[in-house]
Amino acid sequence: MSERTLLMIPGPIELEPEVLRALARPQLGHMDPELTRAFGRVLGRAREVFLAPGGQPLVVAGSGTLAMELAVANVVDPGDRAVVVNTGYFSDRMAAILERLGAEVDQVAAPRLGEVPDLGAVEQALRRAETKILTVTHVDTSTGVRTPVAALAGLARAHGALMVVDGVCSVGGEELRQDAWGVDVVLTGSQKALGAPPGLALVMFGPRALAAWRGKKAKVPSLYLDLAEWLPIMEGYERGAPPYFATPAVNLILALDVSLGHLVAEEMEVRFARHARLAAAFRAAWRALGLGILPARDELAANTLSAVYYPEGVDATLVGKVRAQGVAIAGGLHPAAKAKYFRVGHMGAMRANDALAAIGAVERALAASGHRAEPGAGLAAAQAALAIP
Ligand code: PMP
Fold this sequence. Notes:
By secondary structure, the protein is α/β, with parallel strands linked by helices. Helix content is 42%, strand content 15%.
């Protein structure tokens, strides 16, 4: 089987060759001056990517789930009330993490699959009792739905709650302005729109979150999650003289340094616009092929991935057929509709050419599955949306 498969799942993603080369470097030690400089740059670049010049970044070896735990374990005490805006699989996970930390979790769910929870219902939940944190999944990777983070952050602030955003499927791809929108904690993983391999958890704590951490009554229940252990390490790497706590994932840091360098060089505004344009081209293609998407309305559809219903007569075997055409896409994930849809990631290093390759492969696989559509209809719609201005 050829290794030339185009990876178009919603993370991990295709990597830039420069990022891959960073992984293949001869091993550096974790105190090596070159690694120290790269780690320091990663932290500074993270502030630029999160649009959080006043934030304290944390970069720790582990996946996005570790980032979720780091984000809340350092601000929540047992008995604190947490309101979870629930849009799917990863909001359920955040609720489970909070419950393990002893928080009293109140969830506000979307009225149906593909919708976002009503802001009025969130406000009511915040009014019901004093709330320590409001959490939201910016883009739920299980549904492709994007929640209105700026509006929710405004509500959190008005009710004295900290706003925590799971940006695993959004940071680096969706517009997210941590400082300007008043978001207190944003977390992500390295493997999606940041364009690095899986394996690093990133968390950005804003000033109010750091104050909440300082005011915490109970000890953080796990040593590896404790900001008190990590803060001197992050400060040390930025100063150029890191102490030791736990060995960092050296080569992943080198790779992330390169990929964040690409993001910063492109500039966030340009990147947001590029992702929006590519996502619009995908949506145009799905429409032209007669396929429906999970998000209830286009304005709720994420720019980082598409979640698309199989048409009548087509089932999950489509994913394997697309794979046989040289493009890896993902099946459904949300338990309520898992077998009814597929997902295509479009973030990071992806270009217009990759979009066309993926759409072309889906078209051929649909045709082989008996779905009737004008050959090339999806490609033509995408090409029109991607026309060079
Ligand atoms: N949150 C969201 C929104 C995600 O998409 C994911 C991963 N798909 C996670 C959290 C968990 O990240 P990981 O799989 O890296 O632990």
